[in-house]
Amino acid sequence: MRHRGTSSAPEFPPGVQWLNTDRPLSLGQLRGKVVLLDFWTYCCINCMHVLPDLKRLEHEYPDELVVIGVHSAKFEAERDVGNIRSAILRYEIEHPVVNDRDMRIWDDYAARAWPTAVLIDTEGKIVARRSGEGVFDAFDQVIAEIIEDAARAGLLNREPLELRREREATVTGALSFPGKVLADGESGRLLIADSNHNRVVVTTLDGEVVDVAGSGAIGFDDGAFDEATFNHPQGMALDGHALYVADTVNHAIRRLDLQARTVATVAGTGRRATAIDRTGTGTGMDLSSPWDLEIESNSLFIAMAGSHQIWRMDLHTWALELYAGSGAEDLADGPLRQATLAQPSGLTSDGLRLFFADSESSSIRYADLPPDAYVRTVVGTGLFDFGDSDGLGADARLQHPLAVVHHGGDLYVADTYNNRIKRVNPRTRRVETLLGTGEAGLRDGDPAQFKEPGGISYADGRLFIADTNNHAIRVAPVEGGPVETLQLHPLDRLSPGARSDG
To answer: According to the model, what pLDDT value does residue 355 have?
Structure first.
């Protein structure tokens, strides 16, 4: 055979939890299949970038290849099987996933980085491994040749593997994994990135549905609200009647005209960028998983999570340029383009500084706006330093925060994996819990419970929170107090193109 493995693949340990299947799987049972193990952790942007490649391979070899996700967690919250289930649904993963919560499979296969892929032939031998992205190009031809050789030798099993997927037991509600929310007190609008419904919902601050942008289908189509398509949109920024949207999985920035009810692409090609320091204009530039947006002085700042950078786009010329971040993933302060960031996922500004939630380093940091030129850290100490502790500066700990909003001199943080909302004073660097018990749940009142909140905004004395894994928008007084779940109404307007008389 052209790709003969030399060592036997270690069997899965007993007693581990499985998802997207109604029974535990073993490599012994899968003899005759080509098996691809994907070592991932659901916080990791590089792991997210691998998922489309895995889907392409699954669709290319539907009966011969079995992809198994080995979820080996980085963060404490990611060890929880319920949180992994939510991630499977959020990322629309179709293959079986094993919860490697104690890193036993990771150690057995000597994995060292997320993501890592290990290819196993039909006789249970390890053929190849790869760390990083680009899985399709690396393995497509190899898999085809293994299948061809195994079929010729009578070692191939093409019997379909029947699975019970998590989505089959899931009921979809009015919202599906809303990633971000933007409240605007001046216009009375609330903009909701209804991420897994691939649309943007426009309501009043009290939840009356006014409009819906996006047909609900995954796509990359401009046009009228009821015809346009998105692919898991996230952060937004409002400039009058123009709403800019980070269309994350399309690697693009879309501009919604809220009066004309149209969608236009203003940046991105639909392809993920590989270069990290190019300059260009709008739709001529590739982007990499834009996650959040902020407008300041006619510039649109983009949290480019996929390249661990912040970019800036001129709203008059559509010119794009790197603003902060070398492209390396780490936590190191310094001059704008020499500093290292780690998956920036939330943006806000006080007019002088651009604050950002640097999720993989569990930190809150800021980049000076012109004329200064430095990145500095408010809270956080390193890529693997995380926890749930209030306190001052280096004594405080967050866990994978995804959103931050500035109001009244303070920062309000969606401390996502801690299921809390925290307040940070950027001058004293004091961190204090404002909302949430830390336990995942859906409970209004005081104390309230959240489940991996990913977005936060402020208007009219209230915090509006995208409670992502609860598929809900939560509202609370900015000074703390009872939390309420926003009731969207009337629900029949939550259809593509629907619009109220108001």
So the answer is: 98
Between the alpha carbon of residue 186 and those of residues 30, 146, 238, 239, 460, the distances in Å are 59, 62, 11, 11, 9
Residues near 458 by beta carbon (within 8 Å), at least 6 away in sequence: 183, 405, 407, 412, 464, 478
Facing residues of 38 across strands? 69, 117
Q: What is the pLDDT of residues 26-82, one digit of tens each?
A: 999 999 999 999 999 999 999 999 999 999 999 999 999 999 999 999 999 999 999
pLDDT digits (tens, 9 = 90+) for 347-406: 999 999 999 999 999 999 999 987 778 999 999 999 999 999 999 999 999 999 999 999
Below-70 pLDDT ranges, the chain: 1, 496-502
Q: How many CA atoms lie within 13 A of 285 on its CB side?
A: 25
> Residue 491's CB: how many other CB atoms inside 10 A?
11
- How far is C-alpha 205 from the geometric centre of its chain's CA atoms? 25
- Residue 86 sits at φ, ψ, to 5 deg, of -60, -40
pTM summary value: 0.96
CB atoms within 10 A of CB 168: 9
Helix residue ranges per DSSP H, 362-458: none
Strands of 403-407's sheet in order across: 391-392, 430-435, 420-425, 410-415, 403-407
CB-based contact 107:39 (threshold 8 Å): no
Q: CB 23: neighbour CB atoms within 10 A?
A: 11
Sign of the torsion angle spanned by Cα atoms 28, 81, 234, 341: negative
AA letter at 353? R
pLDDT of residue 498: 53
Contact indicator for 248, 177 with CB cutoff of 8 Å: no
DSSP calls for 265-310: EEE--SSBP--SS--EEGGGS-B--EEEEEEETTEEEEEEGGGTEE
Residue 147's SS3 state is: helix
* Distance from the first to the final alpha carbon of the chain: 69
CB distance 396 to 390 below 8 Å: yes
Q: Which of 181, 175, 176, 177 is nearest to 405 (CA)?
A: 181
Sheet holding 125-131, edge to edge: 7-8, 125-131, 116-120, 34-40, 65-71, 97-99, 17-19
Quick one: which H or E segment has residue 457? Answer: strand 455-459
- 240 close to 209: Cβ distance less than 8 angstroms: no
Phi and psi torsions of 444, nearest 5°:
-85, 180
Domains of the chain: 7-169 (3.40.30.10), 180-493 (2.120.10.30)
> What is the per-residue pLDDT for 501?
41
Q: CA–CA separation, 177 vs 87, rounded Å?
A: 10
